[in-house]
Amino acid sequence: MAKEDKPIVKCSVSNCTYWGEKNLCQADMIMIDIDSHASRDYNTEFAGESFDSEHQDIAESSSATCCHTFKPKS
Fold first, then answer.
1. pLDDT tens, 24-55?
2. Where are the beta strands (DSSP E) in 1-74?
3. Which residues on adjacent β-strands are paired with residue 32?
4. Which residues of 25-52 are buried (b: 16+ CB within 10 A; e: fewer)?
5. What percent of the chain has pLDDT over 70?
6. C-alpha–C-alpha distance, residues 11 and 41, integer Å
7. How many CB atoms lie within 10 A of CB 10?
8. Rounded to 5, what percent of the chain is helix, strand, coil?
9. Which InterPro entries does the UniProt record give (predicted)?
10. Quick one: which of 17, 48, 52, 64 has the fewest CB in 10 Å?
11. Are 69 and 48 in contact (CB under 8 A)?
């Protein structure tokens, strides 16, 4: 996906490194997974490297998902 085609991702978690003004996520890449994988460690550099995208899951609702891209501000 070209940089100009980057989707708008809204996030209200203001203590995330990638949080931007007007609740816009500034990460280059987002990793979303289902809650049952919330504690999974992908051992990657978030927002710029690859993620484990080989598996597929089904979520019943948005509340059953979690963002693995989150990185607390230092």
1. 999 988 888 888 766 766 555 554 445 555 67
2. 19-20, 24-25, 32-34, 65-67
3. 67
4. bebebbbebeeeeeeeeeeeebbeeeee
5. 72
6. 21
7. 8
8. 15, 20, 65
9. DUF1540
10. 48
11. no
